[in-house]
Amino acid sequence: MVTSVDNLLAQQIVNTVKDFCGYDINFINRTGIIFASTNPARIGTFHEIGKRAAASGNTIEVTQDDTFTGTQQGINLPIYHNGRMLAVIGITGKPDEVRKYAYLAERITILLIREQEINAFSRSQSDKKHFVVTALMREEKPDREYLTECLKEFKIDPNSPKRFLILQVNSRYNLVNLSLLEQKIHQLFTQIGITLFTFSYPREFLAVIEESIGVQGVQTRLKRNVRFESK
């Protein structure tokens, strides 16, 4: 679960929102330090109201410049995700004019945070599949408890007979298009009912399939849709 907004993502967000609205925008951490801003001079400086907003969890509007340390008029909006305060977004300007852009920046941030979490989950699933397939194929002795946990997660019956399937990409295939090939094979495996598979760099797809599925049937369907050599 994402618990903070990293500097790079925050800077991308403030730049994007400023391009849209024209107002300067800051990301402020829990201690009141500005860690991303469309005004480079403010990065690393203290923002008193930003700290107060983070501590209270409430949006604070400032109507005059320099009333508080390091603060200009504007809106300071805490961003929450899964009940946790991630950062405070501050937009410089008259509150009535910039309020809607603060909420826009908040929505963009939450969407990108969710995207990060989905990508992290996908990577985690991919890593687990790679671990299981390579451990079984290479007859390694992995942590059996973890292996059993992974098999259960992927709904794989450890007691049913299985086969290994190795798909080798033709050496003449342009690896620039590898991501497209991976997508096609992923779709076909899903249709066939194969859930435990991985890619082994540079040219092999490895899968563990139920014996009941039948290797010949799998090869026929794959050859019909994707050009490669199987073994």
Automatic annotation (TrEMBL):
Ranges where the Putative sugar diacid recognition domain occurs: 6-133
Domain of life: Bacteria
InterPro entries associated with the record: Diacid_rec
Protein name listed in UniProt: Putative sugar diacid recognition domain-containing protein
Organism expressing this protein natively: Candidatus Fusicatenibacter merdavium
